[in-house]
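To fix ideas at the outset, we first show an illustrative case, written as a sequence plus integers encoding its fold:
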Amino acid sequence: MHRRILVPSVLAASLLLAIPASAADYVPGAPGIGDPYYPASGNGGYDVSHYDLRLKYQPKSDLLEGTATILATAKQNLSRFNLDFGLQVSEVRVNGRKAAFAKAGDQELEITPAAPLERGRAVSVVVRYAGKPSELKIDGWSAWHRTPDGGIAAQEPDSAVWWFPSNDHPLDKATFDISVSVPDGTQAISNGVLQSQTSRLGWTRYNWRSNKPQATYLATLAVGAFDITTDTTANGLPVLNAYSKDLGDNAGAARASVERTTEVAEWLETVFGPYPFAALGGYVPNVTSGYALETQTRPFYSPRQFANGANVSVVVHELAHQWYGDSVSVKGWKDIWVNEGFARYSQWLWSEKEGEGTAQELADYVYAQHPADDPFWTVKPGDPGPDKQFDIAVYDRGALALQVLRNRVGEKDFFAILKGWPTAKAGGNASVSDFVQYAEKVSGKPLAALFDTWLFETVKPAPTGPAGTSAGRARVDTRPAPPASYRKIAETDTIHAQEHHGR
């Protein structure tokens, strides 16, 4: 028998390893995830993998009652951690045990578990709460839409604070199960696949599932009286579109646009690659706002988007976000161009496909509309600042940058970049610099100067034509005629105009 002999130094080291961390080794998680645009957004110290939301909503009173179960992993030794949430909380449990909790400011829920959480430990958090979302104001602002027959949660850069506790930043994506009980005769629309619905004692419960990582601001809830259409795509994906029953004169145009969702998605697959999620659709509630939003798998459209008739271009924009913005999300909100520049450019490509003006013609026209002294050129799409995050320059100048890239690298490499990026980064997060590096890798060309000129400089760049020279149609002294598609594209300029707020 071999006897192991431990010398004193080895014995001491082994004893140290066996001693649990002291209380001094556990510290509170940060009250923000570190985004300079929105310092209060998100939290540090943990990573969420799944949200299970069990809700009950009464449209007449706007009362929302909920139990949120959050599954996470501690990323540091935690004595305390925060969730972003604004409604009234009655109980919190962490790993089954009651936890102390306190409200800090408008949106921070500070939770102190009965026992500290070791780094790497699986954590379950149960939060019971209730409140009227329409009465919650943060900096005088609300993300909740009260409607004549219900309520809607759909906003950017955040809306979760108004209806469920979360780590509210795109860096922490998770899967979702959302179960909502509403009075019979009322529907509850959310993300993903409708797993089931059951009725009992005057209430109907709708059970929705999103099985791919989803940012919290992309989670949506719509309660009201809807007309619902369902179908399946050629690939077997379930399609569900919903329309409030009181859209008035906009009803026909809304349906004529959103009912083309499957057609648009199938075309986008030829540009961006396979559709990244398990469900498809859209919804048009009876709200007074004018914007649209890429809520995952089921975009939100304000009725006013269709005030001038059908507009498939807005559907193209929001569905393009399913690849650029939803599947591949921003690392920080300064990287908004990775979402919006591509969604706008998809509208230009749709125009090209429909024979209503090429992307180059649209680029020439947009370029010519803004003289050198136009403030348009002072906005940096690659880092616009929180007050300009949804400025039209992020969209149009952002799309111009992509047309210049197309001219520089050629058709083959350009479309290889557009299709390869969503696959390479699927389910994750990315920055502007990540995209630049990816484009350089695929094309084999240095592109940093191009992107610096079009995304970061605050002066009007020199015009560039299809060959990458200064001989393009977008000359300083010419005013090209607007392409046929331009008016419909311009009608979507307010697509995100009402979303941004100071936080």
About this structure: The CA atoms of residues 196 and 207 lie 5 Å apart.
